[in-house]
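RECORD TYPE: protein structure
NAME: Methylmalonyl-CoA mutase
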Amino acid sequence: MAQEPLHIASEFPAPSVEDWRRLVDKDLKGKPFTALQSQLEGGLSLQPLYTQQDAAVAPPEPPGVAPYVRGTQALGLTEGGWVVCQEYSEPDVTQAAEAIRTDLDRGGWGVWLHLGGTHGIRVPDAEALRRLLAHAPLDTTPVHLEPESDPLAAAQHLLHVAEQTGVSRAALKGSLGVDPLGILARMGSLPMGLDATLSQAAPLVTSLREAAPGLRVLLVSTRAYADAGATSVHELAWAIATGVAYLRGLERAGVSPDVAARSVQFAISVGGQFFPEIARLRAARLLWSKAVAACGGSPEAQAMVLHARTASTTKTQRDPWVNILRATAESFAAVVGGADSVSTSPFDEALGTPDASARRLARNTQLILRDESSLNRVADPAGGSYYLEQLTQDIARAAWTELRRIEALGGMEQALTSGDVARVLAETRAARDKAVRTRRLPIVGVSEFPHLGETPVQREPRAEASPAPATSGPLPLRPARVAEPFEALRDASDRYLAAHGARPKAFLASLGTVAEHTTRSTWTANVLAAGGIEPADQHGFADIADAVARFQASGAPLAVISGPDALYPEWVPALTAALKSKGARAVAVAGRPGDHEAAFRAAGVDVFFYAGADLFALLSSLHQQLGVA
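PREDICTED:
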C-alpha cells in the first residue's frame, strides 16, 4: 500500500520576517530595534537583516546593459578575468623598470605608473619613459600613466615611445592620465588651470578616439581624496563630480560629451569595509551612467572603465604582515565589485621601497583569487543579494546628494579651491580619529593585539624626492594613515628602549581569582601594549603589603590595578596610596570608576582605562608621566 506523502511545509511552516521581528523585540527587552543597526561613514546604516522586501522594485538590468550596475560586459569578467595591473612609484627608473619586468614575467598584465619628482618615478623625458618601459611591450601591455604635473607632456612622451618602438596607436591600451583636478588636489596647484588643460587635451581626445580606441586620455583618480581620509560616499561623489567637470570642459573645447565620456578612465581606492566597498563600485557605474546620460551621452558612452587599487590609509607600519590580509580582502572586494583592473599594494609599502618578496605576495594575491578561487568565472557575483542590491542603492543616493551639493557650489574645482573639500575631510578625519583613539575602529597589530616583541620589518627608505611646491590655503590635501596615532606611541616606546635598554613597564596588579580578573586584565594588557608599555601581570596577593612588595620588585614606574568592580572600593584607595608611597610615578585603574571616582582620585589614581575612553589620550598622558614622550 502506497504511503501518504509527508507535507512537511504545511506541518512546519517557515517563520516569517514578522515572526523574527517579534522574537528580536522580545530579546531586546525594551531597547529600540535601531540598536541592531550598524552605522557606516557617510550617514549610512546597515540593517541586521535584508529580505526581498528591501530589494529594488525592479531588478537591475543584466550585465552589459546601462546603467551598468551589474558590470559593463555581458559576460562580466568571465573571459580572461580582470587585468592584474600593479602600480609603481619608485623614484629610480632602473629599479622601477626591473620591478615591472618581474611582475610581467610572473603573471602581471598591465602597469600603472606614478610619474613625478615628488611622489613618483622621475621621468623627465621620452627617453626616460622608454627605459622605464623597456620590458613592457606596448602592443600587448596596458600602460596607465598618473603624472603629478604636466600631464599632457607625459601623454606625448608615451605616444612618442610607441612611435619609436614601432607600435601603432591602434594597438595601445591603457590611459594617458590627464587628470588636472587630481593634480590640483594632490600637489596644491594647477599652473595652466582646468579649462586651459582640457582645451589642450581636446585635440588629443578627438584624434585618439578613432586612432587608439583602447587608450583613454582623461583620468579621474580619487587617490588624493582617499589618502586624505575621505569617506566612501564622498570619494565616490567627488569622482563623479570630477568626471562631470571634464565633460563640461571638453564640451567647451568642442568635444561632445559622447566622445569625451569614452575617453575617461576612473581609478578608485578600495578600503577595508568589505561589503560596502563592493556596493560602492557597483554604485559608481550607476552614477556615472546617469551623469553621462544627463550630459547627452549615449548608452555606450555611459560605460565606466574602472581601475581599483587597495587603499593606502588602511595599511600599517607595525605588524605589517597583517597588511597582506587587508590587501587580500580589498582586492577580493574590488573583483566582486566588478573592477576592470586591480592593483594590490605590497604589504611593506608604508615602510619604504617594497622588496621583491612583498611584490610577489601582492601579485600572487590576485593570481590566487583568479586561478584558484575562480572569481573570474561568475558574472557579477554580488547580483541578487538583497543586502548588496539595497546597499548599492543607498550609497548611490547618498553620493548623488553630495554630488548635487558640489554642483551647487560651482563644481569640483570650486569645491577644492574654496576649501570646502578640505573642510569636509577635516571633519571626517576628526570623527575617524576619535573612533581609532577609542578603539571603536580597531587596528589589528597596532591598537588591538599588538606584539611588542615583533621583529621590525626593515626596508630601504624611499629616495629623497623633490620637495612639493610651496602652497598656501586648503591645498594640497594631506595624506594620513589611520594607524598613525598609535604608531607614534610605539615609535616613542622604541626610542625609550634604545635609550634605556628596556621598554616602559607597567606592574599589572590583578585582583581576585584568575576567573574574576582574566577578561579585564587581558584587555588592559592589550591596551598598555598598544601604547608601547610592557605589562607585567601579577595576581594572588595575600594583602596590600604583598602587592606593594611585588611592585617594588618589578622595578616598574607605573602600576595598573585590574579586577572585579566589587573589590575596588576595598582595595583601590589603600593600594593606590601604598603604591604611591613606594615610588609609583602613576597609578591607573582598569574599569569605569562610577560613583567612586572622587574617592579613587583623592587616593592618587591618575588614569581610568575602560572601553569607550580615549585610550590614545590616556596612554599619551602616561607617556608624559613616565618620561617616554
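COMMENT: The longest helix spans residues 386-409.
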